[in-house]
Design brief:
Mean pLDDT: 77
CATH architecture: Up-down Bundle
CATH superfamily: MFS general substrate transporter like domains
Distance between the termini: 16 Å
Protein name: Major facilitator superfamily protein
Oligomer: single chain
Strand content: under 5%
Membrane topology: Multi-pass membrane protein
CATH topology: Growth Hormone, Chain: A
InterPro entries: MFS (IPR011701), MFS_dom (IPR020846), MFS_trans_sf (IPR036259), Tet-R_TetA/multi-R_MdtG-like (IPR001958)
Number of domains: 1
Number of strands: 0
Main location: membrane
Number of helices: 18
Low-confidence stretches: 1-9, 412-418
Radius of gyration: 20 Å
Structural class: mainly alpha
Keywords: Cell membrane, Membrane, Transmembrane, Transmembrane helix, Transport
Length: 418
């Protein structure tokens, strides 16, 4: 039973072929979402004459709406996934985002836009379900590198999306990227339907594993909760700059030149670095333990956000964001790896769904805090706020490992001994 998804008649095991198909789906999801998000404030500015504080508020609400509904429904989807399998959840997310992103491109006012993004959040979750499916099948000694590789799919899409979206938006308008997003999610749905084969045995509804808490079988509870909280804070820090990045770039460029394209390049810079580093840092975590990689990434991240407060050129801003991408490569993939190592397969979708909910909460808090800070003071203070979130994250992670001691069991030679 344990080896059923591993070997097949082909040279590559089934889990590896699933990972490659889901890499394509993650790439499509990352590219589609990112090609429209960096220009959302600019899109909103075409819907009316808003003062700076109002534009910042609407931009924050539009960013946060998707993640707010995602935070509410994710545990329900996760519970359903542990009963029906992860593939149906992947298809649900892909088809739902295909429809909602298409209609979003037809928005006629800011409230219609915000409402549609709220609805879209209820159907989202493709990337997290991809993580859950692969995590339930991958050999544990390869979990770090595999999660890192899967991450490069989403990150690669997030790299291509803003640049391509900026080019398209600059020439064809801000609506077209939403239509392309819809087409990419349709592609993701087709790739998932035909390319993913899941070996899934649902738990009987009356079984003990199905009725008990998702956290009942977790080895190091404090560490897993620290990873969930860390995911929330990482998302808050990463997404906090999204509502203001294009507006800040426009300010740095004095509203001259192709602001949309420049914003896209700046938004894509972390993706370039993460794409190059994620798999390598995941493999490093497999050898030295994820704790060291995670703490190192947090220290680097905090040390990079603070100097962004003082940048005076788009080039310097882009350079600092490139190195933030290296830090990002050591964060989310590692938190996913730790949860994979400490969670029993029967509860992994539920744990990952809780993680997705907390990520969504972070994606709500970050943009809303940033919008408030930018509206009350200035865009630059958003970067100081982000650095503070990273420091809080570092404290949480260090405390959890110090009190729970989970790092010793996160080395492949020990976790596979059982």
């Amino acid at each position: 039973m344990v080896e059923s998804p591993m070997l097949s008649q082909n040279k590559q095991p089934q889990w590896h072929r699933n990972m490659m198909a889901l890499w394509v789906g993650n790439f499509a999801t990352g590219a589609g979402a990112s090609m429209s998000l960096p220009f959302l404030p600019l899109f909103i500015s075409t819907m009316g004459h808003f003062p700076k504080w109002e534009l910042s508020l609407y931009a924050g609400m539009a960013f946060a709406a998707t993640f707010l509904s995602q935070a509410i429904v994710s545990p329900l989807w996760g519970k359903l996934a542990d009963r029906t399998g992860r593939k149906p959840m992947l298809l649900r997310a892909a088809i739902g985002m295909t429809v909602t992103s298409l209609i979003t491109g037809l928005s006629t006012n800011v409230w219609m836009l915000i409402t549609l993004r709220l609805i879209q959040g209820g159907f989202s979750g493709y990337i997290n379900n991809a993580y859950a499916l692969v995590a339930s099948e991958v050999p544990r000694e390869k979990s770090g590198q595999t999660m890192g590789t899967l991450t490069t799919g989403a990150v690669g899409g997030q790299l291509v999306g803003p640049i391509f979206g900026g080019f398209i938006a600059g020439f064809l308008g801000y609506r077209v990227p939403f239509f392309i997003f819809s087409a990419l999610m349709l592609m993701a749905a087709l790739v998932t339907f035909f390319g993913v084969k899941e070996t899934f045995t649902p738990l009987p509804k009356q079984s003990k594993a199905a009725q008990q808490s998702a956290f009942a079988g977790v080895k190091h509870l404090r560490v897993v909760w620290a990873m969930i909280i860390s995911s929330m804070l990482i998302q808050a820090a990463t997404n906090s700059v999204n509502p203001i990045i294009s507006l800040f770039v426009r300010e740095l460029m004095h509203n001259e030149g192709n602001v949309a394209f420049a914003s896209g390049v700046v938004a894509a810079m972390p993706g370039i670095a993460t794409l190059l580093a994620a798999s390598r840092l995941g493999a490093l975590g497999d050898h030295i333990g994820p704790r060291r990689v995670l703490i190192g990434g947090l220290i680097l991240s905090g040390g990079l956000f603070a100097p962004m407060t003082f940048v005076t050129s788009v080039v310097v801003l882009g350079g600092l964001r490139f190195f933030v991408g290296i830090a990002d490569a050591a964060l989310l993939p590692v938190t996913q790896t730790v949860m994979t190592l400490d969670t029993p397969p029967s509860a992994i979708s539920r744990i990952f769904s809780y993680n997705q909910s907390f990520q969504a909460i972070g994606s709500v808090l970050g943009p809303m805090l940033a919008s408030a800070v930018a509206g009350l003071w200035d865009y630059r203070f958003v970067f100081l706020m982000t650095a503070l979130l990273v420091v809080i994250n570092l404290i949480v992670v260090i405390w959890a490992y110090h009190t729970d001691g989970g790092d010793a069991t996160h080395k492949p030679t020990i976790t596979s001994a059982k």
